[in-house]
């Protein structure tokens, strides 16, 4: 057996020419009816996608700018709040010191008044006790001696 290199035999006849003509007619008819509108549709889609990307970039940049502005405003507000808090703390400390000073003065005056009253009362009590002590001493001396002692 001999291996043959048999190839495909193509007959070139009228049907081949008919098929080529039919293909060209279809191409001429379908290009404006199908291929043209589809190409326009694809271009429109690409244009819209590109436009959406551009708009998304703009929105992203705008939101980044707004975020930066927001953070700057928040920092200003924090700084103002911190200053106000420090001011209020200082005022509170000042008022606290004033009130404590007044209370200390009042307490000192009350203590001094109490001490002076106590000293005055102690003096009076000493006078009374001294007088009573003399009377008691006379009585005790009178009992011990057996007769009344005069001062």
Features:
mainly alpha; 1 helix; 0% strand; rod-shaped
Could you describe the 3D structure shown?
The chain is an all-alpha fold and 151 residues long. The protein is 87% helix and 0% strand. It is built from 1 helix and no strands. The protein has one helix spanning 14-145. The longest helix has 132 residues, at 14-145. The radius of gyration is 60 Å and the shape is rod-shaped. The model has no long low-confidence stretch (mean pLDDT 89).
The helix/strand series, from N terminus to C terminus, equals H
Classify the beta-strand content into a percent band.
under 5%
Number of helices: 1
Mean pLDDT: 89
Largest sheet: none
Unreliable runs, pLDDT <50, ≥5 residues?
none
Whole-angstrom Rg: 60 Å
Helix-strand category: mainly alpha
| Principal-axes shape call | rod-shaped
* Percent in helix: over 70%
- The separation of the N and C termini measures 178 Å
The number of distinct β-strands equals 0
Summarize this, please?
This protein is an all-alpha fold. The protein contains 1 helix and no strands.
List strands and helices in order, with pairings.
Layout: H1 14-145
């Amino acid at each position: 057996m001999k291996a043959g290199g048999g190839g495909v035999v193509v007959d070139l006849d009228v049907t081949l020419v008919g098929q080529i003509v039919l293909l060209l007619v279809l191409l001429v008819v379908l290009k404006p009816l199908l291929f043209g509108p589809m190409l326009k549709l694809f271009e429109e889609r690409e244009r819209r996608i590109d436009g959406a990307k551009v708009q998304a970039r703009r929105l992203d940049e705008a939101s980044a700018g707004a975020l930066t502005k927001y953070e700057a405003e928040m920092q200003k507000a924090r700084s103002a709040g911190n200053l106000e808090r420090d001011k209020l703390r200082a005022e509170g400390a000042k008022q606290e010191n004033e009130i404590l000073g007044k209370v200390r003065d009042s307490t000192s005056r009350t203590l001094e008044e109490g001490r002076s009253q106590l000293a005055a009362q102690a003096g009076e009590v000493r006078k009374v006790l001294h007088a009573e002590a003399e009377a008691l001493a006379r009585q005790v001396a009178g009992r011990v001696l057996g007769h009344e002692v005069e001062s």
